[in-house]
Amino acid sequence: MNKDKYFLVVPASGIGQRMNSTIPKQYIILENGLTILDQCLNTILSNDLISGFIVALDKKDSHFKSSDFAKDPKLISIATGGKERFHSVLNALNALDQTAKPNDWVLVHDAVRPCIRKEDINNLIEEVADDKVGGILANRIVDTVKQKNNGGLVSTIDRQKLYIAQTPQMFRYAILKDSIEKAIKSNMHITDESEALESLNYSIRIVEGSSSNIKITTQEDIHLANYFLKHHEY
User: Which DSSP string corresponds to 5-36?
Assistant: First the structure.
């Protein structure tokens, strides 16, 4: 019987400069009455395999205390948000140090991906559970992709092997923590957790996710998220 535990880490200390909002975008309220962050937590924590979660918040955050999840029994700790997203993730992993065992699983999810579907979380866990390292949700690219060099010349990239990375990204606790620590020590600027592992030549599984699992960046994305949440089951 698999005795590995599963923990959720959500870096939520961003301020969303591109949204032109008076509040961080993860606290914008969706049409269903939940904030973007709470919608993420509501879906993922409904999975009984998740033993606990940690959110990384900005030191000046005054919004999360109003969330129902601030009093959730699965909340292990609130970590301090770092300069970059990967610093926040590492702070959250450090806060898990007394709780997670080296082989336990950590699912890292963007605080602004409210349309993550339960079935995608289930698929990720099921397909990666026997792996020594972990894997990510990703979408196969279907559009033609162009690349322009400094001289302005355009070329077409073979899209057959290209994917757009999503979250959650699920990795063994010790491997994930070590990889991010080494990336920071090497002055790497990583944009997601898998990049840190890739730099150490770990092999990562890809599990295809739903195209509706969008990351909220603009006001238009909020309209799209509301549409998905209204017309699909989450």
Answer: -EEEEEE-----GGGT-SS-GGGPBPTTS-BH
> Does residue 34 belong to any structural domain of this protein?
yes
Contact 154, 224 (CB under 8 A): no
Per-residue CA distances from 34 to 16, 44, 95, 227 (Å): 18, 14, 26, 14
In a domain, 145, yes or no: yes
Domain extent, residue 21, equals 6-231
Asked if the structure places residue 1 within a domain, the reply is no
What's 189's DSSP letter?
A: -
Cα distance between residue 233 and residue 117, in whole Å: 7
Mean pLDDT of 75-102: 96
CATH number at residue 173: 3.90.550.10
- Cβ–Cβ under 8 Å, residues 181 and 123: no
pLDDT of 22 strictly over 90: no
Q: For residue 1, what pLDDT is reported?
A: 46
Query: Which residue's entry shows tokens 């909220």?
Result: 216
The residue-averaged pLDDT of 183-208 equals: 96
| Helix spans in the chain (H) | 36-44, 85-95, 118-128, 173-185, 193-198, 219-231
Domains in the chain: how many in total? Answer: 1
66 in a structural domain: yes
Angle 122-136-34 from CA coordinates, rounded to 5°: 60
